[in-house]
Each structure stands twice: as C-alpha cells, then as structure tokens.
C-alpha cells in the first residue's frame, strides 16, 4: 500500500491531463456504462456483450480442455517433424514460435489487442518479433554466450556444465559461501535471457530521456498550473470539481505508515534488509513514477523497475538473496501498485465517481483481496505444485510458473551471487552493461527527426515500448505473436479507421466480454476439470500430453 500513498501525489500529472488516457480504464468505463445504461444504444451494447461473453465462454472450453493444440498451432513442427532446427524455430513453448498461431484468448488477449493503441502495438510487436524471430535465433546459431550449451528459451539458471544451477550448494546461513562458490561454478543463462537483461538496462534511461524530450515541457507547464486552470482545460476535470478531493495528508498517512512498517519488518523478520535499504527502494519508485507512469498511461505498457532494483541491491547488499527479493518487492511493487491505483483513479475520473469514494473502496478492496488472493494461491499451489516447482511439465502448457522461475533465477543472479560477479569485469555478460548508455541515446535521433520533420510521425516511435517488447522473452509462450498482431490490426487500425461507428459502439464492449468470458471459463475448468476436480479428457492427437499438444518436442526430450 506504499504505492497507494504515492499515487495521490502524482494525480496532477497522471490522472487529470486529458492525454493520459489509460486505455484499460476506457474498457472498464465502457462496460460499466453499458451494464447500467438505459438507452437504446446501451441496450444494443448489453445484447452484444452477452453474445460475445457466451460465445467466448463456450469456445474457450475447446482450446483449454478438448483441443489444446489450438492454443499453439505450431505449423513448422508439422511441416518438418524430424528437424530439430525447424522445430526449435516453430515451437511456441520451447522455441521462437515462428508461424505459430493461437486460437486461445488467454494467449491472444495477453497483449491487450482490442484496446492498446495501434501505434503502441506496432512499437511493441516490432520489439517482440525482433527478439523472438531474429535476434534469438542468431544468438543461438552463432553460439553467443555459449548459447548452444543451454536450452533455446529458458528462464532457468545453469552451471558451467549446462546443468540446472544448484543454489543450495553455495548458500550458508542465508548468504553466499564464497569458498563453495569458487569450487562450484559461475552462474550462466540462456543467451536470450542474458540479452533480455541488456534490454532492461536500456529501458529506464530510454524512458527518462524519451519523456524528458517529448513530454518535458508539458510536465513543467502542468507543475505551474493551478487546479482551476486544469479544470478549464478538460471537461472531465470540470465535472469532477464539484466533489471534494481526497486531501494529500490521507495519501501521506498511508505512505509513511506503511513505509515505517516495511522498515520495521525488514529489520526484524530475517529479511536481512536494513531500514535504509527499504527507504532506498521506495525512493527509486518515487523518482521514476512520473516518466514510467506517462509511458504506461499513453501506451498501455508499464516499464518495470524489477531489474534496476535488483541491480542496486545486488551492489549494496551482495550475497543476500532474501534481502534482494524484499528490496525488489518494495521498489518494483510500490511503483506497480501506484500505477494500478492511478489507473483506477482515472476510471473514477471517467465515471464521475467521487474521489473519496474511490479512495475508500480501493482500500477496502485491497484488504479483502489480500485474503482472497492468498487463499487462491494456496489452492493453486496445492493442486499444481509439481508443475510449478518444475518436477513435471504441464502437458497443456498452461502452468509454466515462468514468473516464479524468473524470480528464483533473479534472486541467484542479483542477490546471492551479485551483479559484480555476474556482469562485472571478466564476466561474459559484462558487455550487457553498455545497455545503460545505449538506452540513454536511443530516443534522441527520433526526437531530432521529429523536430526536423514534424509531420512524418517520428514522435510515434517510442523506444521504451520497443525495448519493452524486446524484453518480453524468454517469459511467456510465443503463441500470441501472429494472432495477437492480426486481432490488433483489425481492431485498432482497420475498424478504428474504416468502421468507426461500429468501433466506438462495440470494440471496448467486445474486449470486456472476451476477457470476462475467458476468465470465468478458466475458473470453471479449474474447479470442475483440471484443478480441484481432476477429470482428464481422453487422450487424442489434439491434446497429446507427450508433446504439450504442440507436436514439436517430447517433454522428456
């Protein structure tokens, strides 16, 4: 809740400006207006919502349970079943995902194709395709960073022999055992995972420079304006001015109380994170919230602080993996929760909900959500533990736990061993530190081109979003790329330009319906078929568990 307190102090820059659109908030606003409206137009939208909801709800039963091959239709694997090279390029679960199609909205919708602006999708997908289909295969082919010793796409850490890194071997009393580490091995990563860190190093300086160049004047003008001047600029601000605002001290109380609690917990719970470490992590969030928030508000992509917080803590508190995880959580998640809260405040702005009602409802929702989320997490861990800890591989490819793998690998690289050893002088990954300097300069040429040719749309080249796309892998499966880009093109380019009336009336409603129907079906499947109740569908070609239904690689191959 530290982030909630921070959100109140950036409303002036991230909520009230008319160009801070927060695309996802538009979807929710459209849905609520549709469900609660009483005009002919809203009745048509309600009818459309239910048709789309029921359709996707029924359809999701097919790729999620009956015919999982449709989640990742790897065409190259069918064309060349005996070629490991072709299958590596074609597999979305273990390779680059070239010519892999998905008909599963879980995958397609992961890139928010129905409400993320087209210019933003183009930037993001440029990075995604460049990373997965071009740079990744080239790194592997030319054996950069000993790429061929490790899996093509992996978030695991490895030792010098290519085996999974045994972190327990080098831990003593919760910290690094230098002698055992010297006798064992440095940590290694798949080439794509290593280069991904280079992209992360570029992201933050590119974000700060991009925002300073393209939005710096706007931020300064916003800083000088009074509330009355802001109200005159935007009809939403003017309409919201009738409600009493949430005082800054409400947000300040939450911020400082939660910060003090965090500092106490860092010192007393065995986290090995001193009070000043907690304070420093939160300061990083405070310093970057406006530039990262602006990119998030206009593009729908949030540049993460996760790697930067890990890097900083790894240098100041080396050999403390638990402290590194706490530092990352307080820095990265404070920023993340702040921007989620800001987006909800923008939703209240669109819906004309009194700010104090929004504030109290968010606090209550968070308190209830803590309990529900913890309970849900325990159920999932109890029923899917073998998939989540890597003991077994989920045949459907749905339960990969890649986020947990990344978290664990990061705690080894940044916390236990430390960035000085992993990326310092003498390391094969040392060259990646140049990413900070490259990221600083990347936005400048496009800004100069925009100043020279203002009508050529160079301002739509958003280097932070491109870098966000580049850093997508090796995380999620690559099955969303082609279908997601196609859906985005049809919605955000074709329908937006040539079917404008239909787009305004139904596009966001369809997005809400598809997401809701997919999520409800996921709950039904988990409770009745694949989770709490174990009801296996008969094995056939379309759900072959030996190949994760993809027909590319055997799970034990």
Task: Please describe what this structure looks like.
With 557 residues, this protein is mostly helical. It has one domain (2-547). The protein has 24 helices and four strands. The chain has helices spanning 2-7, 11-14, 23-36, 40-66, 75-79, 84-90, 105-108, 118-141, 178-183, 191-224, 227-233, 235-240, 248-268, 275-299, 306-316, 321-351, 355-388, 402-417, 419-422, 435-441, 443-452, 463-470, 481-498, 500-530; strands at residues 73-74, 100-101, 171-172, 175-176. The chain has a two-stranded antiparallel sheet. A two-stranded antiparallel sheet has the order 3-4. Helix 10 packs across helix 14 (275-299). It is globular and about 70 Å long. It starts with a helix and ends in a 27-residue tail after the last helix. 45% of the residues are buried. The model has no long low-confidence stretch (mean pLDDT 91). Belongs to the oligopeptide OPT transporter family. Its main location: membrane. It is found in: Membrane.
How many domains is the backbone divided into?
1
Straight-line distance between termini: 45 Å
Output the strand order for the largest sheet. 1-2
Helix content: 55-70%
For the residues shown, what is the average pLDDT? 91
Choose one word for the global shape: globular
Which structural category do the helix and sheet elements fall into?
mainly alpha
Features:
557 residues, mainly alpha, two-stranded antiparallel ribbon, 24 helices, 4 strands, 65% helix, globular
